[in-house]
Amino acid sequence: MSEPVLTIDHLGVNFRTSDGGMVQAVADVSLDLYDREVLAIVGESGSGKSVSAMSVLGLLPPNAETSGSIRLGNMELLNADESVLSQVRGRRISMVFQDPFGALDPVFTVGFQLREMLKRHFPKMTRAERKERAVELLRTVDLPEPDKRVSSYPHQLSGGQAQRVVIAMALACDPEVLIADEPTTALDVTVQREILDVLMRLREEVGVAVLMITHDMGVVADVADRVVVMRHGRVEETQGVRSLFASPRAEYTRELLEAVPRLKAEPRPTVSAEDPVLKVERISVEYKRRLHTVTAVDSASLTVRPGEVTALVGESGSGKSTIGKAIIGLAPVRDGSIWVDGVDAVNSSGKELRKLRKRIGVVFQNPLGALDPRLTIGEATGEPLRVHRKLRGPALEAKVHELLDSVELPRAWAERFPHELSGGQRQRVSIARAVSLDPVLLIADEPTSALDVSVQATVLELFRKVQQELRFACLFVSHDLAVVDELADHVAVMHHGKIIEHGLRTDVLKNPQHGYTRRLLEAAPVPDPVQQRKHRLAHVAAK
Fold first, then answer.
1. How confident is the model at residue 450, as a pLDDT?
2. Alpha-carbon gap, residue 265 to 509, rounded angstroms
3. pTM for this one?
């Protein structure tokens, strides 16, 4: 085998705390990345995946202390001077982050940002050459109409388009190594497939080695050559992707693979025959722009009964989240009606709507953004009870403790702040807060998409337990079809603002009637390298 492009040897990372203590993030990590290889690093949140990747480019905060070695070829990168690292970052090693909109500057066009990247690393390149190269890079990552998109601002792009721009920027200087940190986590399955197609094609055409950090085992099965499994800052095992899925050596790897949701579409008992809690009847939602009107939802109808979960699936921009917003009065309904527990949610008076909204809980995708960082967990969980039910003192404290018990969090954690909890723990707090007023309807908008598989499995199990106890109706917005299969009773598929297919979960997932639904199912990665390889070959042959 050839010499590795990148070598991490016995890496250790500790963080100094404000009280003078030390927290170990990475204990002893060693790995090799070879030319044109896709090496996936998987593990739970807090396992040290991203810290290890950030160490490669010297992007750790000032309170970090490192040991070991990181070599790019024969060049030592760990604790290297800033002058050395500035020549490596973007030039020889590039990074693609999870959130493309956070990585792009909203003030400048994508073309300007690409040209600035080129100007920084290739000062002799003329302005005309930089302009031509920027368009060429956008064309390389299959961005539609690159000549026009080069003048677009980040907010004018979809999530998938923005991620293509970030990949184009990462490839601008023909790097030897591309570090991709959860590059497809927040994308729906069809866009995710397109981004993975771009990465795989560029791996062959450009010859870049890819270090991919992900918690999606379907993505691992689809694109990885080898897999590094991390836990508690250590490498549990390293294997070829087929060997790892077929015969994992470490007990933790087996647990990780068992936690991965798989799309089976097996029948379950019918949940409810009661009258619907939620009735959405032919609603249309329009947003007025200066020169035109955008229709986000077009004549959509669905119902959800007590104790039932109806999943809304579809691509980004299909109108899924807009329906959820319309139900709670955050989107302008032009036509149609929405009834929640017998109350007209569109035309009722302000007083009636305020009473109704107390009975609707919402769980958002990003729990850190949904929780006030200034409030403790106890204060955040108890806030709806304090505001709407006027609970105070021991009565409020007792109810908060009861809610924390229901989501299996220690009562003592009521004194902690959101930043002191992991992503899965914060999402439990969000669920506790959402059900604090005993809602008749709960709207869950991508509540598990940012969680790793083992935490996701725990949160889904908790979600089912809480719903069985409280029997609220649930509208579950998701792009993860395996999660939908595990949780939902009915599935509604949205495309360009319309609900194109709606029925029992088993009917929609096992025997889809619409071509778009079939494409969604075909695009979902399967956590099995052999089967996923067949899917990819069939997909490539069909293009």
1. 66
2. 6
3. 0.80
